[in-house]
């Protein structure tokens, strides 16, 4: 084919892109982007600079009710609602917000399960301890009563033995005196 006709390849190397790479937005290529530290991001000028302004902002956007506590579960719900705020929000940003929301939701469920298991363990521990004490007393009471009866019988036997020994000793002394006197 003659040069300049469609279907001909001119030049060497890969084709060059006609559009410049985007300068903002999420990094979708496997390149390294210089990232700001969390402190630098927090210090960037914005309408939301602290907890008070954050709560006011969320209330103004109708994402929460004023005065309602910001529990982990509530914040997860807010994140899911943020993903629905604008149809022009890029999908990678929506996906990133949803990813954080799902991870936070998992942590919330784990926190709830941990608190419930601790409460259940404490309740069961107290109940089991009380039951064990009651059962131990019930099982040991007859044994202790039997031991008490045996101790009383032993004391009575010891008293009889002492009386017998005293009586025998008295008799032995009398016999000894009689034998000495003769």
N-end to C-end Cα span: 165 Å
Care to count the β-strands? Answer: 0
Percent range of helical residues: 55-70%
Q: Catalogue the unreliable spans.
A: 5-11, 13-23
Return Rg in Å: 46 Å
Chain-averaged pLDDT: 78
Q: Please count the helical segments.
A: 4
Strand composition percent: under 5%
Order of helices and strands: HHHH
Described by strand count, sense and barrel closure, the largest sheet is: none
Strand-pairing-aware structural class: mainly alpha
**What does the overall shape look like?**
rod-shaped
Notable characteristics:
mainly alpha, 182 residues
Please specify the SSE layout and strand pairing.
Elements lengths: L37 H6 L7 H10 L11 H11 L8 H91 L1
Helix pairs in contact: 3-4
Concise synopsis of the structure shown:
With 182 residues, the chain is mainly α.
Would you kindly provide a written description of the structure presented here, covering whatever features stand out?
There is one protein chain. Residues 5-11 and 13-23 have low confidence and may be disordered. The chain contains 4 helices and no strands. With 182 residues, it is mainly α.
